[in-house]
Amino acid sequence: MNASPADVGDADDRPPSAWSPLRSAAFRNLWLAVLASNVGIWMQTVGAQWLLVDRPGAATLVSLVQTASMLPVLMLALPAGALADTFDRRRLLIAVQCFLAAVGALLTVLTALGRMPPALLLTLTFGLGVGQALTLPAWQAVIPELVPRSQIVSASALGSISVNLARSVGPAVAGVLVAQAGVPVVFAVNAATFAIFAVTLLRWRPGRRDHVATPERFTAALRAGGRYVRHSPVVRRILLRAALFVVPGSALWALLPLVASRRLGLGAGGYGVLLGALGVGAVAGALVLPRIRLALTNNQLLLLAGLLYAAVLAVLALVPVPAVAVVALLPAGLAWMTVLSSVNAAMQLFLPGWVRARGLSVFQMVFAGGQALGAVAWGALGEVIGLVGALTVAAVVMAAGALSVLLWPLRETGSVNRDPAMFWPEPHLVLEAPARDGPVLVTVSYTVRPERQAEFVEAMRAVGRSRRRTGAIRWGLFRAGERAHGFVEVYAVPTWEEHLRQHSGRLTGGDRVVEERARALAEDDIRVSHLLPAEPR
After folding, report:
1. Is the dihedral of CA 503, 475, 517, 524 positive or negative?
2. N or C: which end of the chain has fewer CB within 10 A?
């Protein structure tokens, strides 16, 4: 989320530093708790995968750990985003952390007793994934309550640093603990981190929030989020770029335990070092990426990072030398950070505030789904053609996906105005319109000179996409049979309440530009009518 110029420099004119949100005790305590939880999650993943490396069908079982962790995000991301906007976020987070701590404790006890078959391990891992799917959007939505608006960008950057520090530290610590104390200790530490997060949330006392608008109903919020993504070509392109990288990229995360044990002859500690190298590369990428962005465009970054990641996959397939693998994984971490931060930033810049959490939830669905389904595919392929063959195929697919940016580039969104724009006049009705009655049919009549009609029809296509993104379930443009140069725009909105949301905050500066471009081609006698149901529901 970008702070407006008026928000920046509350105390002085200098922009806030990357570390300024940590001056807030509430944010600092919760950020540290989230960091500990992220470290625990990575430790849990390493412990679960290492518990399966000696089982029959290990390639498939090990990859299914990642699938079990990520599949809940694919299934629940959008509902979780709507929940985070509907319920008290602090209470929701506390309840979810208590659930996660209980699942972690059960994992610890059953593993220590030697009663943890693969099916049960994957089931409980899935349960942890459900908790994480509910945690992510709620935590992101809480951040604006913890820091001033001028520090939102810095707080988001600290969130990225937290994830990558955990990716660097968690696997290395887990490798040492697995080798010295066993997998149950790793699971116990993970359960403890959830408990710490819950206690930290209990100690936080947020201020009273002023609600300036009635919250959306859960089901309506779900539908509105889905409509926005479906009718936004820019968002769909961002999601495509993410999928083309994550699906082949998941081969590295899914098969690395087997590469460590079978190709490189390493134990749990060596596997932790390999994962640590990926984390170190990602953290280093976060530090140097701002300088790289000064020289390259987003699409150039995507191309180079994808080709670099493909080269790393090829090196792991062809060079079974531990030292070479560690060195190669450093740029892989950098490439991973570069691509995901680029597409995530593009999404953040484009999504308007009213649908940002739900749009980012869909991004998480694509990210988690690409990893979960990709992990299954690469694990199955590894069983059929071996690790070397699977990694080689993944390298080729990754390179092809990177080169596809020449055909389907990421669209630049930084200059698009996404601020709310309330430019529609308030509707004045003679009849009473109950908020939840519908559908509501809106008609807009235009008169367009013959020489402008083709251009007007083309401009109205963009208006139609805007209507659908902000609430319309159907839209059409028609010629008026009784008027030589008349056009009628017709669109249906589910309820009167949903239409009022179009008036009061869903439209952006970009929507205003699109609509004004079309209206400039018409005469001044534009008339709007609102048709209400004859028999209210």
Report:
1. negative
2. C
CA-to-CA separations, 376 to 119, 162, 256, 316, 369, in angstroms, rounded: 15, 27, 14, 19, 11
CA distance 135 to 119: 25
> How buried is 218 (Cβ within 10 angstroms: 0-12 exposed, 13-18 middle, 19+ buried)?
middle
DSSP label at 506? I
The secondary structure of 50-68 as a DSSP string is HTTTTSTTHHHHHHHHHHH
Cα 19 from Cα 496, distance rounded (Å): 45
DSSP string, 208-262: PPP--SPPPPHHHHHHHHHHHHHT-HHHHHHHHHHHHHHHHHHHHHHHHHHIIII
Q: What is the pLDDT of residues 113-153, one digit of tens each?
A: 888 888 899 999 999 999 988 888 778 777 767 877 566 65
> What are the two backbone dihedrals, phi and then psi, of residue 438, each rounded to the nearest 5 degrees?
175, -175
Cβ–Cβ < 8 Å for 393, 381: yes
Those residues with Cβ within 8 angstroms of residue 204's Cβ, 6 or more apart along the chain or in another chain: 26, 29, 30, 90
The mean-pLDDT minimum among 153-167, 214-228, 367-381 falls in: 153-167
**Directed axis angle between helix 356-403 and helix 322-350, to 10°?**
130
- Tokens linked to 149: 């608006």
